Every structure is written in structure tokens, then in C-alpha cells.
Known about the structure:
phosphoenolpyruvate carboxykinase (ATP); lyase; binds adenosine-5'-diphosphate; ATP-binding; 32 strands; alpha+beta
Amino acid sequence: MATMGYYQAGFEGLRSRIRVTVEAPFYGNNVVSVGSLREAYGLAKDSPGTVELTGMPVFDAERQGLPEGANVLLFNDGGVVGRCAAARRIIGEPNVSVEEYASKLREAVYGTRFRKLYHVQAVVGLDLDFMVKAHLLIPEGHENILYNWLLNFQYLNERYSEMYRSSKLYPEGDIFVFSDPDWQHPDHPLGLALFDPLHNCAAILGMRYFGEFKKGTLTLAWGTAARNGFLSCHGGLKRFRLPYGKSFVMAVFGLSGSGKSTITHAKHNGKYDITVLHDDAFVVNREKGYSIALEPTYFDKTQDYTITSEASKYIVTLQNNGVTVGEDGKLYAVMEDIRNGNGRAIRSRFWSPNRADRLDDPINALFWIMRDPNLPPVVKVTDPCLGSTMGATLATRRTTAERLLPGIDPNALVFEPYANPFRVYPLSVDYEGFKHLLAEGVDCYVLNTGEFMGKKIESKMTLEIIEAIVEERAHFVPWEDFSGLQIMEIEGFVPNFKDENYREQFAARIKDRIKFVKDRDTEKGGFDKLPPEAGKALEDILQGISNLVG
Ligand SMILES: Nc1ncnc2c1ncn2[C@@H]1O[C@H](COP(=O)(O)OP(=O)(O)O)[C@@H](O)[C@H]1O
Ligand SMILES: C=C(OP(=O)(O)O)C(=O)O
């Protein structure tokens, strides 16, 4: 899907005060275009503070558009090690004044006047049926962000320029992102990520963590997808081909750090022929069911890896990691989150031996990852309405990937519908979309990758559960008398409703979910209101708990 480059006569959809303010500085005489990944690498390598890891050459550098002999580049962002949701402001939401933010934005643009600004372009979406062009403007000094952005999205080489030209034109504007990581404002001590979703533009100000740029750009691309017949997914998707010829496609949805990448990239001891679509961002066509990856590479955690891990062979850039000198005198990364939490790497698409940018096979199962201590390791949800409601009330814990406002408890259970804090369109769009998939025969599971009543659910157990489901040997039994819920009876992890403490905690969490659904009726002026059936599906579970004691 090609988008419209510029504000043109006859395309009223692009008329917006924020968009024209964001777009104008792209044409200033202080702007320099960076046309290739090779050039971006050179700029990042020479940017002050960058560490070139001389002992870590990039695997197949030239095949990725990088110079021969390119090394992994590391850049750390000081005290900032994660994204900050609290800094996001969305035009169109109540209490977000266009006048206030347009004025702040005009001043932010003026503040870049005496600096060199780089303009880079990429496409988000890797198939003729979904391709959005995106532009980033970023001041000199932040070449590592520029380079990461160009690696993370698809830079416009000959092949992709040609594909983009052939893709269908939709009445949507290209994405424009204006940024200044050095911006400061007393009203915004943690920075400002301002989005005008209907006009496909954003400003990322006073923020230096690359994840803000990645998720900021995706926010707009996912919004565009939702307006044009796609389900927007913050998740991983992989296909298993079983030895006897069957295949199984799973999509797994979870908040940052909950296990999307661990599950998506798991190799399952080579038991299956696996194809990976992506571990973080894709879209599914609502009508035809095919899936498209939005990004070529993987921006993932490095906590579980060292430089000798197989996965480290594919690293292109690193953040939030240490460096030391090897016996050979060369520089190597020190990983495993020793320096700080949320160590990150961009790994190339070559990490997945079989990687697809589009999968036509329909999805067999959706998995909502929740780190809710009252949930057993896996629950099967057999009713489409309840399945989509569980996704809409996805309850989990935050991780080190997020920068929280002072006073916010990092361990509190939070609701993040469909694990997508980047939604800029009504929640009901996702509710109906996922319910439709489930009603069409896709299975639905909830995976707990955290703790169950104080007992850790290890990755090994989660992967075994997935394998049992994929091989159709998982045995699910009705969960008490709850209609639409089944569990696998795993020793030591069977919920005990005779235990009053467990029963009360479980009921309290269902009540929290009911409250969350009710609050959507009024919060943000009812923008995220769900249909009454969602609340009803949860009330039925609560009634089921009362029946158990009654
Ligand atoms: N049961 C589990 N399933 C998946 N990951 C788990 C589990 N238990 C612990 N983990 C750990 O949680 C982290 C998940 O990180 P990651 O897969 O990168 O998340 P995401 O891709 O969702 O951001 C990894 O360090 C992984 O080892
Ligand atoms: C990109 C990020 O999210 P995720 O962990 O989902 O990849 C991030 O938090 O920086």
C-alpha cells in the first residue's frame, strides 16, 4: 500500500495544523538527505560516543546494504534505558489541545534552526499489499538513532523502491516524524511524543531511546493499517511445519519483555520446520487472513544472551550494554543486563533461517501473554466473545523496558488491551477484529509467562505447552464450571478453588477486569467503549466463582 508523499490539492485528508508544522522543516536549507544505509552506518560510526565493536563484525554486511567489514556499533543513552508511555500525547484525545501542542511544536522546530538536520526515508510494511512510506528528521549528533531507524524499518534500496512504486495507492499520507532528542520543556520533564494519528505525523521531543522512534513510527503505521482493513498486531507470528505435513500458525501478543521474542524465535530443538514472520509488529488482513511483517529486523532484549550465543552472530547494533577488550585486543560487548536492565540489540533478518515477509496461511491460534499470578500456565478460551474480551483486558506486569513516572509501582498489574499501548484508534476496532478471527475458527489461549501463585513458570514449560498444542496432543479439561474456559492440568500448577485465598484473588482480578471494561465507557470520552457483551462475559465468570462457594 503506497501512501501520499506530500500535502497536495484535492487531498483534504492531509490538512492539519500539526502535520504542516511537522512537515515544513523537512524542506529547510539546514536539511541533508541520507540516501543509503551505508551512509547511515558511516555517520553512526563517526558519531561522538559510538563504540565500534571491532571484535564483532556484522554477519553478511554487504547483503544488508552495509559496507564490507562493518562492525557492530554500540551506543548507550545515559540514564534513559526504556520507553516512556507517560510522555505520549495524542491529538484527538480529550484534554490534548491542538493549539497548545502546535505552539510547542513550532518552537521545537525553531530550536533546530542552527543545527544540521538529517532526513531519512523507509517503508513500514514489507509487501505490495501493505507499504507505508515514512520520513524521519533528526538533528546532527543523533546518528545512532537515525541508523537504527533505517535498520529497523526497510530502507529504500532498488528492490523496495520498485516494490513501493508497484504497490496500491491509498488515500493516506506518508508518515512524517520530526524529532529533537535535545529538546527540553518544563511541562515535559520526560519528553514529549506527540501524535496526530489521522494525519500520520508525530514529533518525538526530548527522548533519546531508540524504542520511542520505533514504536512511535509503528503507532502511525498501525493506525493506518486499522483504517484500511487490517488488524494491527503488537506480537510475534510463526509457522510450524510438522513432520507429517501439517502446519500450524500461531500469533503471540505480549507487552514488552513478556516473551514474544523468546517464543517466536524458539527453535524447539529442530523438531519442526519453522518460518518466522516477525516477533514484534505485523498486520493481518481482516478479509483474507494473510499476515504481513512491518519490519525487516528484530529490536530485542539481550538479557538472555552473551556474545557467544548463536543469536549474537546476527547483531547489527547494541544499546544498554557494556564493552570490554578481548585477549585479541578487540572490543566485545558485555551483555546479560549487567550494565542495566533492558539491554537491546537490532538483529538482522538472517537470525531466522526461514523468514517470510508475508504469510498466506491462516492463523490457527492466538495467544495472549499475561503475567497475572492467578492464572495457570495456560488457559484455553473456547468462546470468541470471551476470548476477545480476555485480549481486551490483557493483564500483565511491566518490565525494565519501560520508563515509569515517579511513584508508579513497577510490579502493579496493568491492563494493556491486546498488549498494544500504541493504539490510536478505538479499542472496539480490535475487539471486533479479534472476535471475528476467533469466530471463524481460530483458537485462543492465555499464556502466563510470569509466576503462578509464587511459582515461576519457566520458558521451558511455556515452550512445552506450545509444542503440545501445535502437535495436537495437549489435553484440556473444563476449568471448574466456567463456561468457555479450559485448562491443562500441569502438576504443581493446578488452580485450587478450595483455597479461599486463591479464590478471592482470582475473583478480585476478574472484578478488576470488569471495572476496566466499565471504565472504558467514560474514559477518554468513551473512545474505547466496548460492547456490553464484553462485560457480560466477565460477569459470567464471576457468577461461576459464586456458584462454586454457594
Ligand atoms: N515462561 C516464559 N516464557 C517466555 N519468556 C520467559 C518466561 N519466563 C521468563 N522469561 C524471560 O522473559 C524475557 C522475555 O523477553 P522477550 O522475549 O524479549 O519479550 P518481548 O519480545 O515480549 O519484549 C526473557 O528474558 C525470557 O527469558
Ligand atoms: C521496542 C520496544 O518494545 P518491545 O519490547 O515490545 O520490542 C521497547 O520497549 O523499546
